[in-house]
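Title: Prediction job returns without error message
Component: structure pipeline
Severity: low
Priority: P3
Assignee: unassigned

Description:
Job completed but the reporter wants confirmation the result is attached to the right record. Sequence as submitted:
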Amino acid sequence: MAPYLSTLPGGIDPRYESHERYMRNLNHVLASSTKTQYEERRLETGIAKPSIFSGIPENRRYPITSLFPGDIMHAVLNLAELLVGLWRGKLHCDKNDDKATWDWAVLVGDVWEEHGKAVERCKAYLPGSFDRAPRNPAEKIFSGYKAAEFLTWIFGLAPALLYGILPDRYWTHFCKLARGFSILHQYRITSPELTEAHVLLTAYTLEFELLYYQRRPERLHFVRQSIHNLNHGCPETVRTGPQPGYAQTGMERTIGNVELELRLHSNPFGNLAEISLRCCQINALHAMLPDLDITPGPKEVPRGAFDVGLGFCLLHPKSRKPIAPPAAEEAAIRRYFETYEQGVVEDCWLEQPTIRKWARLRIPTHQVARSLWKEETMEAKIQALRQSRNIKFEDDNSLPAFAEVQYYFKYEDRAFAMVCQYSAPDQELYNISHRAIWSCSPAQDGEFRVVDVQRIAAVVGMVPHPFNAKHPEVHGRVFVVEKPGLDLLMYTGQLPEEEDEEEDEGADGADNDTQ
């Protein structure tokens, strides 16, 4: 990736060159001696008065002309509106253009209705920690569709759901955007990942003009600011850090919170101003006297839970008494401890292991990973249950892998997950989608393995591929959907809401899980 900040002839950094030009123009306006002269200079420079941010010391802020970074939250909304409008053929068609030539407009009629139903069916496979699951866009797209819904639908589900529906050249082009945008939503981004994202997004921008706009003046309105801004996403990340950390989402949430505190409806704006002033005063006191901050820390370990350490915690329910696992699971336990944990367990226990099953695990992202053991019982009772039993973890080579958790168990002060691992991704689909789609097959019955819970990175969605007449080979497979910006939860402390859990199977107080 080329450096973002090149040096102009003469050794001047372009950030500061534009800032110096701004300051010269501002001083030129402020030096006006008459109102007529001020009006002339204001029109000449486009500057009316100093910015309020000029009051911040220069060593505490970026230059004025470089002060405002991009907003990735509204980028999601703007890109989704543009792409859906194109694919549905709903954008304005100039009199010199012909919609019959819009071969990308495939989400029309029954195809659009069926796509909406496919999106809605995905809800059951998306964990509750994914915020609001996308509703049927064919019915609800104009009914307050949320940014989180667009993000999950367009950048999580659409690459797989549109496979075989969008013409191949448009689909592979869209996958570049989906992959690059998912990288920008990470809170931690490595240099190779950022380079990959920059290459994909700049290629997407260029190819957008070739595929959709086609350099035709009557289609100039296709190339919106949201397309051009993709070229700046990675350089902005280099300059100001990962974009989820300063996205408009936080400001929107703050506005909502302040609005909820409104009490004086006869003078709402005065009331809001007073509330905002009080909030600023409290923040200033916390900044000057940090000991005043009484913000609650990490959520405490619930009663009866087991703290594994490093942010991992086994949660109820758990089985009443230790049991001997079935033969296939027993073999997986023995294979794991003999291979990775030699000498850790007692030989007598390894010969005939007995365990107590645990149903849930809280991980450092504040997600709660459930298990098939209890979740299949809950599915019969809770119609709208969203699966949270699929996990992402590091395999033996420190590479990402995915599995369905059967249950959790512990030995002494260690905790483990009994899982059925999904297959490696379909390499051809993985490559042609520019790594946007991880499509894999479920594990065969009886293929169990044991995973140390501290290797679990996230709870993910494993969504079945819909019927695809053009690509029948995907039938029976599932594709991975990860929550963008998930690792931000580690810093915000936002905890996902969960469905009610059952009580233990005859909870009988604290006792040993292994014998």
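Comment from assignee: result matches the submitted record. The chain has four domains: 14-66, 72-248, 261-292, 306-492.
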